[in-house]
Amino acid sequence: MASAHKSSCASDASAATSAAQALSAPNAGDIPAPENLPGEYKELRERFQRTTNALASAAHDLKTPLSILNGYVELLQTEKLGSLSERQRTVLRDMEASGKRLQQFVQDFLTYSALETGGLNMQFQPGNVNDCLGGVCRLWSNRFQEKGLALYFLANENLPVFPFDAPKLERVISNLLENAYKFTPQGGTVWLHVEPHMWDRRTASLPSTAERRRQDLKQPNAAKISVADTGPGIPAEFHQEVFDDFFRLSSNENEEGMGLGLSIARRLVQAMGGKIWVESDPGAGCKFSFLIPYKPIAVKPSTLSAKGKAR
Ligand SMILES: Nc1ncnc2c1ncn2[C@@H]1O[C@H](COP(=O)(O)OP(=O)(O)OP(=O)(O)O)[C@@H](O)[C@H]1O
Ligand SMILES: [Mg+2]
To answer: pTM of the full predicted structure?
Structure first.
């Protein structure tokens, strides 16, 4: 049976040391009395935020030197500084790919810490979701082709123009497509699909007759976006945990990644007032779906938990 582990994230040595100190487990003798728990929780939360800030500033400091290095690699590839041998071109291509991957890690960590510390502002602008998704698909299509994967985008003309945060939505789709690309073996197929959806948000305080599904109102009030693949799938017992911070299945230990992509996607979707989930049977691929409401609901970042379930 598949098991899971949380990956470690290499970063600046001093920041990592302070992170380890800040998060180290207490001895049995240190367990606080019940009346002190709220104070202890507050202190831990503050320590966690300070640690996240320290790691974010280390990640931020990596950004500039990294883009300079990537810039020099690009300059060398133009051969303006001298012609290259085939071997040198291959080395530069590898350097370029690694540089881009590192940039992605840094970007992921910065987004993660912005979400964790409440520093992320949502910007909802009316737009066409089909155009936004089509644009992300085009960015990925070459990589899919190179790996021998088919990528299909099924747009839907019935979607209205509604306000959404396009860069954050692109980020969610990219994270899902990246996983589909990474985990689906050569020859597989990936579908990106969008459709109008009638989302009934049920709350305990609503009398049941007020629920939209009981009023026979069929007007869609949300966009449902799905990324489905023909990869190895995810066992049912991990369908919640895959959205936790730093969670990875041990079956994909050889693949690169920090286990942050889905937790970032979940927080971004929740910050848009939506929800995300996965359906999958091992061996039969995965389908990740999320809803974003046509009327955005501002959700305070502090209410987005580190675990797969919203608080
Ligand atoms: N499409 C998929 N098919 C199979 N397993 C998946 C798929 N998407 C996610 N998973 C599983 O969920 C885990 C968490 O995904 P997540 O995107 O958060 O992390 P990652 O891809 O390992 O690393 P990162 O996104 O930080 O580069 C993955 O490591 C993998 O085990
Ligand atoms: Mg990922």
So the answer is: 0.75
